[in-house]
Structure formats: C-alpha cells, structure tokens
Specification:
Layout: E1 11-12, H1 38-60, E2 97-100, E3 106-111, E4 117-124, H2 138-145, H3 158-180, H4 188-209, H5 216-223, E5 227-233, E6 238-245, H6 249-261, H7 268-284, H8 287-299, H9 313-316, H10 321-331, E7 337-343, H11 347-357, E8 381-387, E9 392-399, H12 407-418, H13 424-432, E10 436-444, E11 451-459, H14 465-482, H15 486-503, H16 507-521, H17 526-535, H18 539-548, E12 555-562
Parallel strand pairs: 3-7, 8-12
Antiparallel strand pairs: 1-5, 2-3, 4-6, 4-7, 5-6, 9-11, 9-12, 10-11
Length: 568
Amino acid sequence: MSSRAHGPSSAVRPTPGTTRVPAPGASSPLDPLRFADRGRRAAEKGRRFALALALLVAVGVPATAPVPGAAQTPEPESPPLQADPQGISLGERLPVREMELDNGMRVLLLPRRGAPTVAFVMKFAVGGIHEHLGTTGVAHLLEHMLFKGTESIGTTDVQAERELFRRADAIHDRILSLRSAYPGAIPDSARLELDRLRDSLTSVEDSARTFVVSNEFDRILTRAGARGLNATTSNEATTYFVELPANRAELFFILEGDRMRRPVFREFYTERDVVMEERRMRVESNPAGALYEAHLGAAFTMHPYGVPVVGYRSDLETLRRADIARYYRDFYGPNNAVLAVVGDFDPEQVEAWVRRDLEPIPRGLEPPAVHAVEPRQRGERRVEVVWDAEPSVRIGWHVPAVTHSDAPALAVLSAILTGGRTARLHRRLVTEERKASSIFSSMGPGELHPRLFQIEATPIHPTTTEELEAAVYEEIRRIAKEGPTEEEVERVRNQIAASAIRRLRSNFGLALQLADSETLLGDWRATFRATDRLRNVTSRDVQRVAGAYFEARNRTVATLVPRRPEGS
C-alpha cells in the first residue's frame, strides 16, 4: 500500500497505436526448429497454417462485446460473499479455480457474470533485480520485443528475415569489438570505421523491415475488440495484460501460446534505440527521474534495488540480440509464469484452451536468486542533483520487506502522513502553511526485499527543502512520541475498507491483484489477508514503527538543487 505509485521504478510500454514510436521491424528469433528434421519442419508448416486459419476465424466474426471508445456495460459488482463482522466482503472466498500445469505454469480462473468481457494478466517472476551489471535493462527491453510478433505473425518471410538478422548481428559484433579496442579516446580512423559500420547496420535492418507486417500482433487483438493491451516491467516481475470480448477469449490462448513458443525479435536495434530514448526522456533529461535514480543509487549500495529497471545507457548500448534471446529462453518459461483470467467465461472451456495452447510449452530455468543483502546503514547519506529546475527533496529510510510483520503498520503510517488532504503532512505543508506544492510517500522500489520508506516534497518559494525536511522529521518524531490519534487510524481503516470493495468490482483490477499476489507472495489470497492485517493495525503499532526505523543514521536524502547562473 502506498500513497503514490512510484513511476520511475517501473517501465510501462506505451499503448499500441498511440505513443509507441516504431513499427515492428526485423530481428533475430529463437529458432526451436534449428536442429529439426524435415518431418518436423513439415509439421510446423501445417501448424502455422492452422494458426493462421484460427486467427482468421477469430477476427472474422462480429464481436458481441463493446469495442474501445464505445459505451461500456458496467463491470460486475462484487460477488455475494459472506462478510466479516465489519461488513467487508472477504476476497479470500472468491471462487477462484486454481490450476498447476505439468510445465509448472500456475493458472487462476475466476468466472463472473456481468459485462461480456474477459481480463487476462500474464505475469512472469523476472524483473530488474534478476539482472547483473553489464546487462541491466534486459528485462525491460525484452518486454518491448515480445510485441514484435512470432514466426507466424508479423512477417511475410521469416527465413529471409533470419538471414538478415545474422548479417546485422555480425556487424553489431564488429562495432562492439572496435569499441572495446579503444577504452579511452577513439582515434579518428576508428571513429570513421564505426560510423561506416553503424550505417551498414541501419541499412541491413531496413532491408529486414521489408518483410515485416507492421504491428500485426496489436492489430489482430484490436480488430477483435481488445482493450488495454500493454505490459510493464518492475523490479521483480514483468506483466502482460489485455481485455477481450467474451466471444474472443480463445484468441488470447492462441496468440499467447504462439508468442511463448516462437517469438521473433524483429527490429532489435531500432527498438533498443527506442528504449534508450525512453531512458533519456525519463531520466537523463527529466529532473524528477534523475533525482529518483540518484536517490535509490545512494540508498542501495549493494542490493539491485539501486539499479534502474530501464537499465544504464552503457549497458543498453552493448546488449545483443543473442543476450535477449538467451534471457528469454532461460527465464520466461511457463514455470515462472502466472496467468489470471477474470470475467464472463466458461471455466471448463478455458481450461481446455489452457491445456491445448499453454501446457505443451517446455519449462525454463528458475530466475537467478538474489543473494545480495544491503548492509546496515550507519550514517546519513546525502546526494545532490544540480539542474535547471525548481528544487525538490526525496527522503528515504530503510524498512523491511512487504512480508515483514511491521509492513502493515508502516503502510498505515504512510497513509497518516500523506494519504489524502486531511493527512498530517499534506494538511500542514500544502493546505495550512502553504510551504509545499505537493508531498507524497510510498514504500519501494520493490516488495520482496527490504526497501525504502520514501517521502518526496516540492517547496513553494521562498520555502527551502531544508524547511520541508525539518517539518517531516518533526511530524514523525511527534507520532513516535505521542502516536497517531484514533481518528487518524480510523480514517485509514475506512480508506482500506472502501478500497477493498472497489477492487472487487473490476475484472481487470482483480486479475492484476490475483496475478501479483500469486507471483510475488505464492498465494492469490495473500493480498486479501494483508488487507485484514492493515485494518487491525492500532495506534500503538504505528507509534512503535515510527520510533523504530526513522533514525537519522538510517536516512538517505536526495535534493534537487537549482543551477545557479555563472558568476553568482
């Protein structure tokens, strides 16, 4: 639970057809048939024909569910469940059907009457913390690449593409070799050769693009009435999601089974440039993003929470298509995946599609274990980011993971400080004293490992960031000494109760919650149980954690400092 989503810690793919920059181009696939005999190749031709026929049938029948932009039927109300003594429906009693396939994939099915739509969320337990220096950003780049199509979708001649992929990759390897030969300043002769090689790489990728059917994966789903097709990469997972009309539900399994087995990483170098541009816009030319990255980097000196999910530019520049293919083959197997399906569907039919399209996919490896432990901080750390921008400040204290017994009380403390207009810091600094234009708190950047309790504030001139810091520390000390009032704790309980009801009303929101909880905590019921723990937090619990974790020596502060004119 947080009072604000922390955007820079996760990377979200732009919605298809709007802000997404490139059209799908050419890039190297995994080739599961590389060592196959002719009989298997013939069988694969038949499979691709059957897939094409299935897609034609699926998108050729008029949809019965609403399409994007049309008037929508309301989502179903929460199902009639037994209530606890406080009158809150117990999400743990939702009639979720659990499946574990022979290949290790976990599938959660929740049929609900109502609008004729179905929400699909596929979550892989692979994210930024599983990378290592030199390959940072690989999970986020792979998220982009998995929308490029397959051997059957997005191409007119996959074999011709593959030949051009090999040529492009060989040129890229020569670029890397030449750069590594000159770790310092690159002489003019080598620079000219690099420019020539880059031009050749662009030319070969342009040639491969002539075989691409642009955005075919997106268009197939859009023509079938899909809504919300997107993906996101976080520190601990990568998530793909979409909503479809109920009479198009089979299409998801056809497409997802094909994508998981036979992805083709088209236009790899162009898409890599898109990701580097995303990093430039979000971090390198964005003061808030730069401050966020500097803050986490100072707070986490050992743990990968300090490494940005989008990756470092120097790593992105050297990532190869083979790196992406290997990472996908190893860690994006069904044994690392959870699929949540929520909406108006026949569970017996959906189970049949799951077993037909997803169960035959072979297992992969387990994600790399994260053994790094952040050392105990023994003194306040401070970092400044100088920018031609208005000042702001980020303050962070190390706190336990979401599974720790103190996590619910810390979440309630966050809400008491900044969760709404009547919260302590917002009321004091924004409403009454008018010293800040905004103030937020959250915990992150991940969930499974010890993280930061973060407060971010922007002062109103002539207030300084130092004054805002002093006010924050004062309010936390007051809570540690006196505890919050019962009215404050009850307000948070009411917010939790209202949120618990709202999230049961949305198929998509519920599918996200089920997948998140099953992937990160091993049980789809865990977040519902966490809600009960939050509602049981007392004033004394909040007082205790306010006194336990918010010492100066456990604190990291990052300040955005306005650039001063030269000579001043």
